[in-house]
Every structure is written in C-alpha cells, then in structure tokens.
C-alpha cells in the first residue's frame, strides 16, 4: 500500500441462512382457519367431513381412529366434477395436505368395519371457507 491509499474494507461476515427442511405440509398464514372435530363411529357406521374450498386452495390435515381402524376415501365434488385423492383400508391414522382440484367440497369419508366403536378425530388448518360434517 502506498501513501494516500486506504486499506481495503473487509467484507462483512454473512451468516448462512438456515436450510429449510422439505415437508409436504403447506405453511399456514394467520388469516387461515384451524378446526378440530371428534365423533364416534359404531361398528358399520360411516361419516363424512368436507372442507369448502376454492380451486388451488390448500389445507393440512391429520386424523386418528382411536380404538380401531377405519376404511377411508379422501375425495372432492362440486360443479358437476368429482375426484378421488386417496383411499385406504384398515387404517389407524393419516395426515397430509389437500390441494383443491376445483371449487367445491373436499374431504373424507370413513367407515368403521370393525366390531367395536372407534373415536375419530380430525384436525385441519389452511385455506378453506368452511368445514362441515355431512353424515
């Protein structure tokens, strides 16, 4: 360095940003809904719960069948359209996210095929207008 020259400024230290973990869950904004429903299914009984959603809306869900297992179908209907997202037999629990394929009702049908009562609890959170139990 010669007279009159200033020393080069040191580059500021930059902290590495934490790496986000990959997840199938959709982040929830404060203006979105959160609900929990719980009900008991007798042997042979079915129940249906639907979220009213706009096309492209997303909602996280988690459900458990306490006391047994259930058969289920996750599906949607509305405006003359229908879609089946997932089916399962003899399942004790499930979780994930629904992205509405179209405007309408999107949700679950469960049936208790066992020989004793099952208490089903579902928790939902996300971008949906309403939640309703149909059966």
Give the SSE map:
Blueprint: E1 33-41, E2 46-53, E3 58-66, E4 70-78, E5 81-91, E6 93-99, E7 104-111, E8 118-126, E9 130-133
User: Which strand order spans the largest sheet, edge to edge or round the barrel?
Assistant: 5-4-7-2-9
Mind summarizing the main beta sheet?
5 strands, antiparallel
C-alpha Rg (nearest Å): 24 Å
Distance between the termini: 83 Å
Uncertain parts? 5-23
What's the count of strands? 9
Mean pLDDT rating: 85
Number of helices: 0
Give the % helix. Answer: under 10%
Helices and strands, in N-to-C order? EEEEEEEEE
Structural shape: globular
Proportion of residues in extended strands = over 45%
Structural class: mainly beta
Task: Walk me through what this model shows.
There is one protein chain. By secondary structure, this protein is mainly beta. Helices cover 0% and strands 55% of the residues. A hairpin with a 2-residue loop joins strand 4 and strand 5 (81-91). It is globular, with a radius of gyration of 24 Å. The model is unreliable at 5-23 (pLDDT under 50).
Give a short overview:
The protein has 135 residues and is mainly β. The protein contains no helices and 9 strands.
């Amino acid at each position: 360095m010669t007279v009159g020259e200033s020393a080069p400024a040191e580059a500021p230290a930059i902290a590495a940003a934490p790496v986000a973990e990959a997840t199938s869950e959709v982040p929830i904004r404060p203006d979105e809904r959160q609900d929990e429903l719980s009900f008991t299914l007798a042997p042979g009984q079915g129940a249906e719960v639907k979220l009213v959603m706009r096309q492209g809306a997303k909602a996280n869900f988690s459900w458990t069948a306490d006391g047994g297992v259930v058969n289920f179908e996750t599906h949607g209907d509305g405006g003359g359209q229908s879609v089946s997202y997932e089916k399962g037999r003899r399942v004790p629990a499930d979780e994930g996210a629904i992205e509405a394929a179209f405007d309408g009702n999107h949700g679950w049908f469960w049936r208790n095929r066992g020989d004793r009562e099952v208490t089903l609890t579902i928790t939902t959170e996300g971008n949906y207008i309403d939640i309703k139990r149909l059966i």
